[in-house]
Design brief:
The complex is a heterotrimer of chains A (about 250), B (about 240) and C (about 250). Chain B is an all-alpha fold and about 240 residues long. In chain B, about 85% of the residues lie in helices and about 0% in strands. Chain B has 10 helices and no strands. Chain C is globular. Classes of the chains: A alpha/beta (about 250), B mainly alpha (about 240), C mainly alpha (about 250).
């Protein structure tokens, strides 16, 4: 599909590109800044309509609204400052009219899973950025979405926290069996976590390479010691480097 | 271009409302626009009118000067001495929210009727916001700017002139803008019952002797002046904040 | 002693000192009772007036006016704020008007308002509304401005209807600023009404002060002034503390 932003000079943000996500796979998207990664997420989720082409999810077209079964974790902190952590997580379930007992069960599970036990009754303002992101992930988790879209969720965190959060994400993926699309600018993160990585060109973003990692399902960040990891990361950068330079506005470096 | 059109549209809307009010309430309450403009032109040609304008402006100028100078000076002092600033700020804030009416009689008893009372009114209305904004401006200086000044080994005078002054100026200007409007308001209110001269007096006198035309016209002149002056200060304010 | 305690103590000492100084100067006759009477006498007179019940009617009248002006200002200001927020062009056009609003002495419109509403409490309430509504409106605008854009997306991911979005996300997100608006609306209603009563002889506490002043009844005048001062500081102070508590819990943006 293609996404062009209308305006005085139309901005061709994205595409044309084709993408097929296999059910249950962990797919990452890497690309230079401004290549349209976030736009891709918006279009996939149904938040923005494509200018040309179509999106379908589970066999049905995605038109105008966000389909049931898709969860999104945004780059910015989207936790509700006026709700305690527990209520934040329960938000989606309450809106869906789930039984209180079921809500309590799922929230308790998510709180435990994301390591938020000590903070369940605190307010987001009292938590660090990383913990707030965990709250957002938990909020998405409890709805048991079949597809989870994450837009640079660990962007604001330091490297070590990122690696650990990556492990948690893998755990989540295995436990829920959902399909994951992760947008990240960190090549090592993409190489570590994914089954496949899509490399996007500079704007307008198109896929210029699709790398399969071939990792076993049961993996964590320690897979960095696997010799394949270096090769994959190198391949990603080889494809990405010229695009990044282009995005920075230079012709060569 | 659209800006101009919108501004004209707003003015037109006000005129329409004005005419509507006149149609509903009649001559006993308000004078219609055209007659008001005509009388305004006439007033502006009368020397006696300009005497009143002079009285108001003199009081206003003094009140503004005192509010600005004392407000900024005290604000700087309280802003720089952390402890004093924190002690004083809530007191000033609550002073701001208390009806200053409660002080009018005291002012009158201390200053008597006349110019000094008017200036006092202007000052108690205008000085507080100047102080509050100045204190905030000083508190909000980013520490990293001061550290940079030290790393560059600037003298205290250089630091004050080249780093501190530009950093606090935008907020102080906003404070002066608010102080300007409130000072004017204070002086006018003072004139309403503490003076026999000035624009405020003309208005309240117009109300008392049922000279609706005078009341409406002088009100219009005051409003136009206030809006014009404030708009000018808004431009200045935006210019000062252009880097924020 | 912690710093916070020291600050509060210093403040109390300062205020007590100032009051004490005035008391001393009055008792010593340096300040004549024609100008200012001793604070203790003010308090005494106020207590007497409260006991005798002569405060009830003017106080009730003023509170009725302030309450009405407050209620109307909050509703009108909030509604207008929401309306103007939705129309950026209207907002830009009204900007200079709002910026100059408080430079205009609104009491001059009193005869017009009397002609419109009659010789009762309504003209004064109208003046109170003219004073207070813009403050509420500006605060509402600020609050709506500060709803993070990501929250809108979260609303769509959770498939909330427009009404649900406003109720569950927009309003709670804007709440801190709306509360500030309430604080300001109260303060300005109070100021406008009391000043109006004083200047325009409306009845109520402000009128009582003016009448006592003109009748040279200094004791009564100062007692009423003290009463107004206490109410203003009391209510504004309580709202301020509440505001601070909310800010600490929710983390003001």
């Amino acid at each position: 599909m293609t996404r062009v932003y209308p305006g005085v000079t139309p901005v061709h943000a994205l595409g044309p590109l084709d993408l097929d996500l296999a059910r249950g796979e962990f797919f990452s998207v890497v690309g230079p800044s401004g290549c349209g990664k976030s736009t891709l997420l918006d279009v996939l989720a149904g938040l923005s309509p494509p200018t040309a082409g179509k999106i379908s999810f589970e066999g049905r077209p995605v038109v105008g609204e966000v389909p049931d079964g898709i969860g999104v974790v945004f780059q910015e902190d989207a936790s509700f400052p006026w709700l305690a952590v527990r209520d934040n997580i329960a938000f989606g379930l309450r809106r869906a009219g789930t039984e209180p007992a079921e809500i309590a069960r799922r929230v308790a599970y998510a709180v435990g899973f994301m390591g938020l036990d000590d903070f369940a009754d605190a307010f987001p303002a009292q938590l660090s950025g990383g913990m707030r992101q965990r709250v957002c992930i938990a909020r998405t988790l409890v709805l048991q979405p079949r597809l989870i879209l994450l837009d640079e969720p660990f962007g604001a965190l330091d490297q070590q926290t990122r690696l650990l959060m990556g492990d948690e994400l893998l755990r989540l993926w295995r436990e829920t069996g959902s399909t994951i699309l992760l947008i990240t600018h960190a090549l090592d993160e993409a190489a570590l976590l994914s089954d496949r990585v899509g490399v996007m060109s500079a704007r307008p973003g198109r896929f210029i390479d699709l790398v399969s990692t071939g990792w076993a399902r049961d993996r964590d960040s320690r897979i960095a010691s696997d010799p394949g990891f270096g090769a994959i990361t190198a391949r990603l950068w080889a494809a990405l480097r010229p695009e990044s330079i282009k995005a920075m506005g230079r012709t060569a470096l | 271009m659209m800006r101009l059109f919108d501004a004209v549209a707003v003015v037109a809307a006000i005129l329409v409302i004005w005419l509507g009010l006149y149609a509903y309430a009649g001559d006993a309450a308000i004078t219609p626009p055209l007659r008001t403009f005509a009388f305004a032109a006439e007033l502006l040609s009368r020397a006696s009118f300009w005497n009143h304008v002079g009285a108001t402006m003199a009081a206003f100028a003094m009140a503004l000067a005192i509010s600005a100078v004392a407000g900024v000076a005290l604000g700087l002092m309280l802003g720089m001495r952390r402890f004093a600033g924190e002690v004083a700020e809530p007191i000033l804030s609550s002073f701001y929210t208390v009806p200053k009416v409660t002080l009018y009689p005291v002012m009158l008893l201390i200053f008597g009727l006349g110019m000094s009372a008017k200036v006092a009114f202007g000052v108690i209305h205008g000085m507080i916001p100047v102080m509050l904004f100045t204190i905030a401006a000083v508190k909000n200086i980013q520490p990293v700017l001061l550290r940079t000044a030290r790393v560059m080994r600037l003298s205290p005078a250089q630091t004050a002139l080249n780093v501190l002054a530009p950093a606090v100026t935008p907020e102080i200007i906003t404070g002066l803008r608010v102080g300007f409007a409130l000072s004017l308001l204070g002086v006018l209110i003072g004139e309403m019952f503490a003076s026999q001269r000035g624009l405020g007096f003309l208005i309240i006198n117009g109300i008392e002797i049922h000279d609706v035309r005078m009341m409406t016209t002088v009100t219009l002149i005051v409003v136009v002046f206030a809006v014009a002056a404030n708009s000018l200060m808004l431009v200045l304010d935006r210019h000062a904040h252009r880097f924020a | 002693m912690t710093r916070a305690r020291r600050i509060i103590w210093t403040r109390l000492v300062l205020i007590a000192g100032a009051v004490g100084l005035i008391e001393l100067l009055c008792r010593l006759g340096i300040i004549t009772p024609l100008t200012i009477i001793a604070p203790s006498q003010m308090a005494f007179e106020l207590a007497r007036m409260m006991a005798s019940g002569e405060l009830v009617r003017p106080a009730a009248y003023t509170f009725m006016e302030v309450g009405s002006a407050f209620a109307v200002s909050v509703v009108a200001g909030g509604a207008l704020g929401a309306l103007v927020h939705a129309r950026p062009r209207l907002r830009r056009a009204l900007d200079p008007l709002l910026g100059s609003w408080y430079a205009v002495p609104f009491f001059v419109f009193y005869p017009l308002l009397v002609a419109l509403f009659g010789l009762n409490a309504l003209p004064l309430i109208a003046i109170g509304v003219i004073f207070a509504a813009p403050a509420m409106m500006l605060s509402t605008l600020a609050g709506l401005d500060r709803v993070p854009r990501v929250m809108r997306k979260v609303a769509r991911v959770h498939r909330l209807s427009r009404v649900q979005e406003v109720r569950l996300i927009t309003l709670p997100s804007a709440a801190p600023h709306l509360f500030t608006g309430l604080k300001l609306a109260f303060a300005y209603s109070f100021i406008g009404i009391i000043a109006g009563e004083f200047i325009l002889s409306g009845g109520g506490l402000g009128y009582g002060i003016a009448y006592a002043y003109e009748s040279f009844e200094n004791r009564k005048m100062y007692a009423l002034m003290l009463f107004v001062l206490l109410i203003a500081t009391g209510v504004n102070g309580a709202l301020h503390v509440w505001d601070g508590r909310l800010a600490r819990r929710w983390g003001r943006t």
